[in-house]
Amino acid sequence: MDSFHSEDTYTLDDLSHWQRDGTSLAVLGYPVRHSISPAMHNAALDELTRENPQFADWKYFRFEVKPEELLDALPLFYEKGFFGLNLTVPHKEIALPALPQVDPAAKEIGAVNTLRRMDTGYIGFNTDGFGLESGIRIELKRELADSEVIILGAGGAGRAAAVQALRSGCRSLTIVNRNPERLAKLIEAINPIAQERTIPLVGKAPDDPTLKIPEGALLVNATSLGLKPDDPLPLPANALSKSLALYDMVYNPPRTALMQTIESLGGHAANGLSMLVYQGVRALEIWTDHPVNPDTMDRAARSAIA
Ligand code: NAP
Q1: pTM above 0.85, yes or no
Q2: What is the rounded distance in angstroms from the CA atom of residue 127 to the CA atom of residue 112?
Q3: CA dihedral in degrees (242, 135, 249, 147; nearest 10)?
Q4: Is residue 89 located within the same domain as residue 187?
Q5: Are residues 189 and 85 in the same domain?
Q6: Among residues 135, 126, 176, 137, which one has the least CA distance to residue 155?
Q7: Total count of domains within the chain
Q8: Which residues of the chain have pLDDT under 50?
Q9: Atom of ligand 1 nearest to the CA of 131
Q10: Is 92 a catalytic residue?
Q11: pLDDT digits over 166-212, tens only?
Protein backbone atom coordinates (compact mmCIF):
# COMPACT_ATOMS: atom_id res chain seq x y z
CA MET A 1 0.00 0.00 0.00
CA ASP A 2 1.43 3.37 -1.09
CA SER A 3 1.65 5.77 1.86
CA PHE A 4 2.07 8.78 -0.46
CA HIS A 5 -1.11 10.33 -1.82
CA SER A 6 -1.45 12.16 -5.12
CA GLU A 7 -4.21 14.41 -3.67
CA ASP A 8 -1.84 15.88 -1.06
CA THR A 9 0.47 18.86 -1.54
CA TYR A 10 3.99 18.01 -0.39
CA THR A 11 6.87 20.26 0.67
CA LEU A 12 10.67 20.05 0.56
CA ASP A 13 10.56 18.84 4.14
CA ASP A 14 8.45 15.88 2.98
CA LEU A 15 10.93 15.34 0.14
CA SER A 16 13.86 15.06 2.55
CA HIS A 17 12.07 12.04 4.15
CA TRP A 18 10.80 10.63 0.85
CA GLN A 19 11.15 6.87 0.47
CA ARG A 20 8.98 5.31 -2.16
CA ASP A 21 9.77 2.22 -4.23
CA GLY A 22 7.68 3.03 -7.29
CA THR A 23 8.43 5.50 -10.10
CA SER A 24 7.56 8.99 -8.91
CA LEU A 25 6.67 12.01 -11.06
CA ALA A 26 5.71 15.45 -9.79
CA VAL A 27 4.73 19.01 -10.60
CA LEU A 28 6.69 21.75 -8.82
CA GLY A 29 5.22 25.22 -8.49
CA TYR A 30 4.48 28.12 -6.16
CA PRO A 31 1.60 28.24 -5.55
CA VAL A 32 0.68 24.74 -6.73
CA ARG A 33 -2.34 23.63 -4.64
CA HIS A 34 -4.70 24.50 -7.52
CA SER A 35 -2.79 22.32 -10.02
CA ILE A 36 -4.93 19.69 -11.74
CA SER A 37 -1.89 17.97 -13.26
CA PRO A 38 -1.89 15.12 -10.68
CA ALA A 39 -5.51 14.28 -11.58
CA MET A 40 -4.73 14.32 -15.32
CA HIS A 41 -1.53 12.30 -15.15
CA ASN A 42 -2.73 9.71 -12.64
CA ALA A 43 -5.85 9.05 -14.74
CA ALA A 44 -3.66 8.55 -17.83
CA LEU A 45 -1.26 6.32 -15.85
CA ASP A 46 -4.19 4.15 -14.68
CA GLU A 47 -5.18 3.69 -18.31
CA LEU A 48 -1.62 2.91 -19.43
CA THR A 49 -1.32 0.36 -16.61
CA ARG A 50 -4.32 -1.61 -17.93
CA GLU A 51 -2.31 -2.39 -21.08
CA ASN A 52 1.22 -2.25 -19.63
CA PRO A 53 1.57 -3.52 -16.04
CA GLN A 54 5.05 -1.93 -15.98
CA PHE A 55 3.33 1.37 -15.10
CA ALA A 56 1.46 -0.01 -12.06
CA ASP A 57 3.84 1.64 -9.58
CA TRP A 58 4.02 5.02 -11.38
CA LYS A 59 2.42 7.92 -9.52
CA TYR A 60 2.36 11.69 -10.02
CA PHE A 61 2.54 14.10 -7.03
CA ARG A 62 2.42 17.81 -6.35
CA PHE A 63 5.14 19.77 -4.49
CA GLU A 64 5.09 23.36 -3.33
CA VAL A 65 8.58 24.76 -3.98
CA LYS A 66 9.46 28.44 -3.62
CA PRO A 67 11.44 30.01 -6.49
CA GLU A 68 14.49 30.63 -4.29
CA GLU A 69 14.48 26.92 -3.30
CA LEU A 70 14.28 25.45 -6.79
CA LEU A 71 17.97 25.12 -7.64
CA ASP A 72 18.67 23.26 -4.38
CA ALA A 73 15.49 21.22 -4.74
CA LEU A 74 16.24 19.76 -8.20
CA PRO A 75 19.30 17.70 -7.06
CA LEU A 76 17.24 16.44 -4.12
CA PHE A 77 14.42 15.27 -6.41
CA TYR A 78 17.10 13.51 -8.49
CA GLU A 79 18.69 11.90 -5.43
CA LYS A 80 15.25 10.68 -4.28
CA GLY A 81 14.80 8.97 -7.65
CA PHE A 82 12.06 11.14 -9.24
CA PHE A 83 11.93 10.12 -12.91
CA GLY A 84 10.02 13.08 -14.34
CA LEU A 85 9.13 16.59 -13.22
CA ASN A 86 6.79 19.26 -14.53
CA LEU A 87 7.67 22.85 -13.71
CA THR A 88 4.97 25.48 -13.51
CA VAL A 89 4.87 29.17 -12.52
CA PRO A 90 7.38 30.60 -11.53
CA HIS A 91 9.99 27.90 -12.21
CA LYS A 92 10.07 27.43 -15.99
CA GLU A 93 12.86 29.94 -16.66
CA ILE A 94 14.78 29.60 -13.39
CA ALA A 95 15.56 25.90 -13.95
CA LEU A 96 17.08 26.25 -17.41
CA PRO A 97 20.71 27.13 -16.50
CA ALA A 98 20.86 24.32 -13.92
CA LEU A 99 20.19 21.52 -16.43
CA PRO A 100 23.01 19.49 -18.04
CA GLN A 101 20.97 19.11 -21.26
CA VAL A 102 18.11 21.07 -22.81
CA ASP A 103 16.07 20.24 -25.92
CA PRO A 104 16.75 22.81 -28.74
CA ALA A 105 13.14 24.08 -28.88
CA ALA A 106 13.12 24.68 -25.11
CA LYS A 107 16.41 26.55 -25.45
CA GLU A 108 14.86 28.84 -28.07
CA ILE A 109 11.88 29.46 -25.79
CA GLY A 110 14.19 30.05 -22.84
CA ALA A 111 12.02 27.95 -20.53
CA VAL A 112 11.40 24.29 -19.62
CA ASN A 113 8.23 22.68 -18.26
CA THR A 114 9.17 18.99 -18.44
CA LEU A 115 12.28 17.27 -17.05
CA ARG A 116 13.23 13.64 -17.68
CA ARG A 117 15.84 11.77 -15.69
CA MET A 118 19.11 10.76 -17.40
CA ASP A 119 22.35 9.31 -15.99
CA THR A 120 23.86 12.76 -15.47
CA GLY A 121 20.85 14.75 -14.23
CA TYR A 122 17.62 15.98 -15.83
CA ILE A 123 17.13 16.86 -19.50
CA GLY A 124 14.68 19.74 -20.06
CA PHE A 125 11.87 20.03 -22.62
CA ASN A 126 9.10 22.53 -23.24
CA THR A 127 5.75 20.99 -24.21
CA ASP A 128 3.66 24.20 -23.97
CA GLY A 129 4.11 25.04 -27.67
CA PHE A 130 2.98 21.54 -28.68
CA GLY A 131 0.00 21.93 -26.32
CA LEU A 132 -0.95 25.27 -27.85
CA GLU A 133 -0.67 24.09 -31.44
CA SER A 134 -2.72 20.95 -30.72
CA GLY A 135 -5.37 22.99 -28.88
CA ILE A 136 -5.69 25.45 -31.79
CA ARG A 137 -5.99 22.57 -34.26
CA ILE A 138 -8.60 20.65 -32.27
CA GLU A 139 -10.72 23.48 -30.90
CA LEU A 140 -10.53 26.07 -33.68
CA LYS A 141 -9.73 23.81 -36.66
CA ARG A 142 -6.91 26.21 -37.49
CA GLU A 143 -3.17 25.81 -38.05
CA LEU A 144 -0.39 28.14 -36.92
CA ALA A 145 1.25 27.40 -40.28
CA ASP A 146 0.31 30.06 -42.84
CA SER A 147 -1.78 32.07 -40.34
CA GLU A 148 -1.35 35.74 -39.50
CA VAL A 149 -0.72 35.25 -35.76
CA ILE A 150 -1.22 37.92 -33.10
CA ILE A 151 0.07 36.98 -29.64
CA LEU A 152 -1.12 39.07 -26.68
CA GLY A 153 1.52 38.83 -23.93
CA ALA A 154 5.30 38.52 -23.78
CA GLY A 155 5.70 36.50 -20.56
CA GLY A 156 6.68 32.82 -20.39
CA ALA A 157 3.54 31.59 -22.19
CA GLY A 158 3.79 34.30 -24.85
CA ARG A 159 7.39 33.31 -25.50
CA ALA A 160 6.50 29.64 -25.97
CA ALA A 161 3.62 30.62 -28.28
CA ALA A 162 5.84 32.93 -30.35
CA VAL A 163 8.56 30.31 -30.89
CA GLN A 164 5.95 27.67 -31.79
CA ALA A 165 4.26 30.02 -34.29
CA LEU A 166 7.60 30.80 -35.98
CA ARG A 167 8.79 27.18 -35.97
CA SER A 168 5.48 26.07 -37.49
CA GLY A 169 5.76 28.62 -40.31
CA CYS A 170 3.15 31.30 -39.53
CA ARG A 171 2.69 33.87 -42.31
CA SER A 172 3.39 36.83 -39.99
CA LEU A 173 3.75 37.35 -36.25
CA THR A 174 2.70 40.37 -34.18
CA ILE A 175 3.34 40.42 -30.45
CA VAL A 176 1.35 42.85 -28.32
CA ASN A 177 2.46 43.67 -24.78
CA ARG A 178 1.92 46.37 -22.16
CA ASN A 179 5.50 46.47 -20.83
CA PRO A 180 7.70 47.78 -23.69
CA GLU A 181 11.01 46.48 -22.27
CA ARG A 182 9.70 42.95 -21.95
CA LEU A 183 8.29 43.18 -25.47
CA ALA A 184 11.59 44.44 -26.93
CA LYS A 185 13.52 41.65 -25.19
CA LEU A 186 11.25 38.98 -26.65
CA ILE A 187 11.37 40.47 -30.16
CA GLU A 188 15.17 40.61 -29.97
CA ALA A 189 15.40 36.99 -28.78
CA ILE A 190 13.17 35.52 -31.50
CA ASN A 191 14.18 37.81 -34.36
CA PRO A 192 16.85 35.36 -35.64
CA ILE A 193 14.22 32.58 -35.97
CA ALA A 194 11.91 34.95 -37.87
CA GLN A 195 14.72 36.15 -40.16
CA GLU A 196 15.91 32.63 -40.90
CA ARG A 197 12.38 31.79 -42.08
CA THR A 198 11.69 35.26 -43.62
CA ILE A 199 8.59 35.74 -41.45
CA PRO A 200 7.57 39.37 -40.77
CA LEU A 201 7.77 40.04 -37.01
CA VAL A 202 6.59 43.19 -35.18
CA GLY A 203 5.97 44.21 -31.58
CA LYS A 204 3.24 46.69 -30.57
CA ALA A 205 1.71 48.23 -27.46
CA PRO A 206 -2.00 47.33 -26.98
CA ASP A 207 -3.03 51.00 -27.47
CA ASP A 208 -0.72 51.69 -30.44
CA PRO A 209 -2.92 53.34 -33.11
CA THR A 210 -0.86 51.64 -35.85
CA LEU A 211 -1.74 48.18 -34.51
CA LYS A 212 -3.65 46.44 -37.31
CA ILE A 213 -5.31 43.06 -36.83
CA PRO A 214 -5.59 41.51 -40.31
CA GLU A 215 -8.84 39.87 -41.48
CA GLY A 216 -8.94 36.19 -40.50
CA ALA A 217 -6.03 36.48 -38.07
CA LEU A 218 -5.40 33.94 -35.34
CA LEU A 219 -5.34 35.69 -31.96
CA VAL A 220 -3.69 34.03 -28.94
CA ASN A 221 -4.23 35.48 -25.47
CA ALA A 222 -1.10 34.71 -23.45
CA THR A 223 -1.64 37.48 -20.89
CA SER A 224 -3.06 36.71 -17.48
CA LEU A 225 -5.99 39.06 -18.21
CA GLY A 226 -9.23 37.09 -18.02
CA LEU A 227 -8.33 35.17 -14.86
CA LYS A 228 -10.32 37.67 -12.75
CA PRO A 229 -13.93 38.61 -13.59
CA ASP A 230 -13.28 42.39 -13.60
CA ASP A 231 -10.11 42.24 -15.75
CA PRO A 232 -10.13 44.63 -18.72
CA LEU A 233 -9.77 43.27 -22.29
CA PRO A 234 -6.10 42.90 -23.34
CA LEU A 235 -6.92 44.85 -26.55
CA PRO A 236 -9.35 47.72 -27.28
CA ALA A 237 -12.71 46.21 -28.35
CA ASN A 238 -12.68 48.24 -31.58
CA ALA A 239 -9.58 46.32 -32.74
CA LEU A 240 -11.65 43.09 -32.83
CA SER A 241 -13.80 41.75 -35.66
CA LYS A 242 -15.92 38.73 -36.57
CA SER A 243 -13.26 37.30 -38.88
CA LEU A 244 -10.93 36.50 -35.96
CA ALA A 245 -10.30 33.19 -34.25
CA LEU A 246 -9.18 33.43 -30.62
CA TYR A 247 -7.29 30.89 -28.54
CA ASP A 248 -7.36 32.14 -24.93
CA MET A 249 -4.82 30.35 -22.72
CA VAL A 250 -6.98 31.07 -19.66
CA TYR A 251 -9.21 28.05 -18.87
CA ASN A 252 -10.58 28.93 -15.46
CA PRO A 253 -12.99 30.74 -15.82
CA PRO A 254 -13.89 28.74 -18.96
CA ARG A 255 -15.21 31.79 -20.84
CA THR A 256 -13.30 35.08 -20.55
CA ALA A 257 -14.60 38.55 -21.48
CA LEU A 258 -12.32 38.46 -24.55
CA MET A 259 -13.85 35.15 -25.68
CA GLN A 260 -17.36 36.55 -25.15
CA THR A 261 -16.55 39.70 -27.13
CA ILE A 262 -15.15 37.77 -30.11
CA GLU A 263 -18.09 35.34 -30.07
CA SER A 264 -20.63 38.15 -29.85
CA LEU A 265 -19.08 39.61 -33.03
CA GLY A 266 -19.48 36.23 -34.76
CA GLY A 267 -15.86 35.01 -34.43
CA HIS A 268 -14.65 31.70 -32.98
CA ALA A 269 -13.06 31.37 -29.54
CA ALA A 270 -11.64 28.54 -27.43
CA ASN A 271 -10.25 28.45 -23.90
CA GLY A 272 -6.85 27.03 -22.85
CA LEU A 273 -7.92 23.71 -21.37
CA SER A 274 -6.89 21.77 -24.46
CA MET A 275 -3.41 23.37 -24.27
CA LEU A 276 -3.08 22.19 -20.68
CA VAL A 277 -4.20 18.70 -21.65
CA TYR A 278 -1.90 18.37 -24.67
CA GLN A 279 1.19 19.74 -22.91
CA GLY A 280 0.48 17.04 -20.30
CA VAL A 281 0.00 14.33 -22.96
CA ARG A 282 3.36 15.20 -24.52
CA ALA A 283 5.11 15.26 -21.12
CA LEU A 284 3.78 11.82 -20.17
CA GLU A 285 4.82 10.47 -23.58
CA ILE A 286 8.34 11.84 -23.00
CA TRP A 287 8.50 9.99 -19.65
CA THR A 288 6.82 6.71 -20.61
CA ASP A 289 7.84 6.39 -24.29
CA HIS A 290 4.23 5.26 -24.86
CA PRO A 291 1.33 7.02 -26.65
CA VAL A 292 -1.06 8.70 -24.20
CA ASN A 293 -4.81 9.07 -24.77
CA PRO A 294 -5.73 12.81 -24.65
CA ASP A 295 -9.42 12.02 -23.96
CA THR A 296 -8.56 10.41 -20.62
CA MET A 297 -6.55 13.46 -19.52
CA ASP A 298 -9.26 15.79 -20.80
CA ARG A 299 -12.01 14.00 -18.81
CA ALA A 300 -9.85 14.02 -15.66
CA ALA A 301 -9.04 17.73 -16.11
CA ARG A 302 -12.71 18.69 -16.55
CA SER A 303 -13.82 16.73 -13.53
CA ALA A 304 -10.97 18.14 -11.39
CA ILE A 305 -11.94 21.70 -12.35
CA ALA A 306 -15.63 21.02 -11.68
P1 NAP B 1 3.79 35.71 -17.00
O2 NAP B 1 5.11 35.25 -17.46
O3 NAP B 1 3.62 36.26 -15.63
O4 NAP B 1 3.27 36.84 -18.07
C5 NAP B 1 2.07 37.53 -17.83
C6 NAP B 1 1.67 38.30 -19.10
O7 NAP B 1 0.41 38.93 -18.84
C8 NAP B 1 2.64 39.41 -19.49
O9 NAP B 1 2.65 39.56 -20.88
C10 NAP B 1 2.00 40.63 -18.82
O11 NAP B 1 2.31 41.85 -19.45
C12 NAP B 1 0.53 40.35 -19.04
N13 NAP B 1 -0.29 41.06 -18.06
C14 NAP B 1 -0.46 40.74 -16.75
N15 NAP B 1 -1.28 41.65 -16.17
C16 NAP B 1 -1.60 42.57 -17.14
C17 NAP B 1 -2.42 43.73 -17.15
N18 NAP B 1 -3.06 44.16 -16.05
N19 NAP B 1 -2.55 44.42 -18.31
C20 NAP B 1 -1.91 43.99 -19.43
N21 NAP B 1 -1.12 42.88 -19.48
C22 NAP B 1 -0.97 42.18 -18.34
O23 NAP B 1 2.69 34.55 -17.11
P24 NAP B 1 2.67 33.34 -18.16
O25 NAP B 1 3.30 32.15 -17.56
O26 NAP B 1 3.17 33.84 -19.46
O27 NAP B 1 1.09 33.03 -18.24
C28 NAP B 1 0.21 33.91 -18.92
C29 NAP B 1 -1.20 33.31 -18.93
O30 NAP B 1 -1.22 32.09 -19.67
C31 NAP B 1 -1.74 32.96 -17.54
O32 NAP B 1 -3.11 33.23 -17.51
C33 NAP B 1 -1.52 31.46 -17.44
O34 NAP B 1 -2.43 30.85 -16.55
C35 NAP B 1 -1.79 31.07 -18.89
N36 NAP B 1 -1.15 29.78 -19.26
C37 NAP B 1 -1.97 28.77 -19.65
C38 NAP B 1 -1.42 27.56 -20.04
C39 NAP B 1 -2.32 26.45 -20.48
O40 NAP B 1 -1.86 25.31 -20.52
N41 NAP B 1 -3.55 26.75 -20.85
C42 NAP B 1 -0.02 27.38 -20.02
C43 NAP B 1 0.80 28.45 -19.62
C44 NAP B 1 0.21 29.65 -19.24
P45 NAP B 1 3.49 42.82 -18.90
O46 NAP B 1 4.77 42.27 -19.47
O47 NAP B 1 3.10 44.13 -19.47
O48 NAP B 1 3.44 42.75 -17.41
Answers
A1: yes
A2: 8
A3: -50
A4: no
A5: no
A6: 176
A7: 2
A8: none
A9: 40
A10: yes
A11: 999 999 999 999 999 999 999 999 999 999 999 999 999 999 999 98
Could you tell me the distance, in angstroms and rounded to a whole number, from the CA of residue 165 to the centre of ligand 1? Answer: 17
Q: Which of 59, 80, 92, 212 is catalytic?
A: 92
CA distance 257 to 29: 27
Q: Which of 213, 273, 214, 224 is nearest to 247 (CA)?
A: 273
Judge whether 4 lies within some domain. Answer: no
- Whether 119 and 59 map to the same domain: the answer is yes
- Probe target for ligand 1 pocket from 27, 152, 176, 223, with the most ligand atoms within 8 Å of CB: 223
State in Å: Cα 253 to ligand 1 middle. Answer: 15
For the chain, the residue count is: 306
Buried b (16+ CB within 10 A) or exposed e, 159-191: bbbbbbbbbbebbbbbbbbeeeebbebbbebbe
- Give the residue numbers spanning the domain of 262: 129-271
